[in-house]
Write a structure and sequence with these properties.
Blueprint lengths: L2 H31 L7 H37 L14 H6 L7 H28 L1
Helix pairs in contact: 1-2
The structure holds zinc ion (ZN).
Zinc ion (ZN) binds next to helix 4.
Length: about 130
């Protein structure tokens, strides 16, 4: 990954982080405003449901924000673009498409396939224990 591309990605991430912060602030303000109590329980329920959606979005954005922060730290410390698992460089194509990648394609696939196998094993184990009930 050349320096020019890396700084392009860093700029993009900083902008994204600012946008997320702004939208999180808006959501928090909205949640505070909608803290009123309604006489009609259906209105109240609708407000509560929309608050829940907002909170879920906030939670997702928060995790994304953490990922972005971590990626910026990786860029600044020179670890960006290096696979966490095997230490080999992650392809530029992959980093351009998904800058938050911490694994190269091969390691990612290996881990995913291991994870799937484990899932199958758990499902199978679950079936065995159910047959005893
Ligand atoms: Zn790797």
């Amino acid at each position: 990954m050349n320096k020019n591309k890396t700084s392009q990605i860093r700029n993009y991430l900083v902008q994204k982080m600012e946008a997320l912060r702004t939208s999180a602030n808006d959501t928090i303000i909205k949640l505070k405003i909608s803290d009123d109590k309604f006489a009609d329980p259906f209105d109240q329920a609708a407000v509560e449901a929309s608050k829940e959606v907002d909170l879920n979005c906030l939670d997702k954005d928060w995790h994304l924000l953490l990922d972005i922060k971590e990626t910026i730290m990786r860029i600044d410390s020179g670890l960006f673009g290096i696979c966490d698992h095997c230490g080999r460089p992650i392809s530029q194509k992959r980093l351009m498409a998904a800058p938050m990648s911490k694994l190269c394609v091969m390691c990612q696939e290996e881990i995913e396939s291991r994870h799937n196998k484990q899932k199958h094993r758990f499902q199978y184990a679950g079936r065995i224990s159910y047959s005893h009930v």
